[in-house]
Amino acid sequence: MEIIKDFRIDRKTSVGKLTKQMLESGGFTAKKLGVGIEILEKMIKNKEYLNFLSFPADIVATGTRGVLKEFIKEKWFDVVVTTCGTLDHDLARSFKKYYHGSFEMDDKELHKKGINRLGNILIPNESYGTIIEKKMGNFLKRIYKKSKEISTHEFCWKLGKFIGKEDSILYWSYKRKVPMIVPGITDGAVGYHIWQFAQDHDFKINILRDEKLLNDLVWNAKKSGALIVGGGISKHHVLWWNQFKKGLDYAVYISTAVEWDGSLSGARPREAVSWGKINRKAKFVTIEEDATVALPIIISALKERL
Fold first, then answer.
1. Residue ranges of the chain whose pLDDT lies below 50
2. What pLDDT, on the 0 to 100 scale, is given for residue 201?
3. 150-193: per-residue pLDDT in tens?
4. Could you tell me the residue range of the domain that residue 216 belongs to?
5. Which residues contact 242 (CB under 8 A, 6 or more apart)?
6. Is 45 assigned a catalytic role?
7. From the CB of residue 27, how many other CB atoms can be counted at a distance below 10 Å?
8. What CATH number does residue 140 fall under?
9. Which of 11, 18, 182, 220 lies 20 to 30 A from 156 at CA?
């Protein structure tokens, strides 16, 4: 048995050293965070691994967008799987501002003022629907001249090039040629405008091209790992494809959901083992924490260690 040690923190204690101490403290979620960082460090250092990053759109509305951008800019992950809302928020925030609010605000009054609330973040109509409609109209006309049928990851690269701003997740996906796959592309503002554009143009999103890419990557991978934030379609899509290579070899989940309702968001890695989506010999951990707290700590530690 290993002895529990107290934290030893002074003014010179870095985030990297702090998270190393989390492994020794034995302190509930702190230790899980320390274990998760160790797993991610191994995944990233081994260049033969096929590493996945999946996350839901809500955290892109927060400053955590900057963490996700850095993950891709550093090219620590080979494939990103996310939801349409990521495109919405990344596009919108590249040209307009989101604002601080609170969870307890009067939503009826906000609606009267044309302000949308996402948790404790305020998004005026002109910072979301209006700007997305304007930018998507110009963007779709531009790419239609050369592309009549396109996959979601090719679409994301073109949108990133169109945005052209270094604080954008999509921009770095384009620059680093990291495929960003959006299985539920129609479930959001960007997807709606694609559909609307297609009503009078022979324009199509071919999601089967994305599946072909995933198929080729997974079948050729010797080992694979994943950082999976939250749940939903982005989480499942990563797990689904990795069953065809006998499961993920490394997996770090970050979630605040419970498992006893049977939801995918709350399902722990051990459940995926029963499906063959995570390998029986894999190293994995679930960090029960708000991703907007965990991810800045994780990237700070990894920047120091790598």
1. none
2. 97
3. 999 999 999 999 999 999 999 999 999 999 999 999 999 999 99
4. 43-96+130-292
5. 52, 218, 224, 226, 248, 277, 278
6. no
7. 16
8. 3.40.910.10
9. 220
Q: What is the pLDDT of residue 219?
A: 95
| Structure tokens, 43 | 């995944």
Looking up tokens 């051990």, which residue turns up? Answer: 270
Q: Is residue 216 part of a domain?
A: yes
Say what the pLDDT of residue 27 is. 87
CB 83 within 8 A of CB 57: yes
Place of tokens 């003014």: 11
Number of domains in the chain: 1
Of 69, 135, 235, 277, the catalytic one is 277
Q: Is 227 among the domain residues?
A: yes
C-alpha neighbours within 13 Å on the C-beta side of residue 305: 22
Residue 249 resides in a domain:
yes
Domain assignment of residue 25, yes or no = no
Task: Give the relative orientation of helices 291-305 and 28-45 as an angle to the nearest 10 degrees.
Answer: 50
pLDDT at position 26: 79
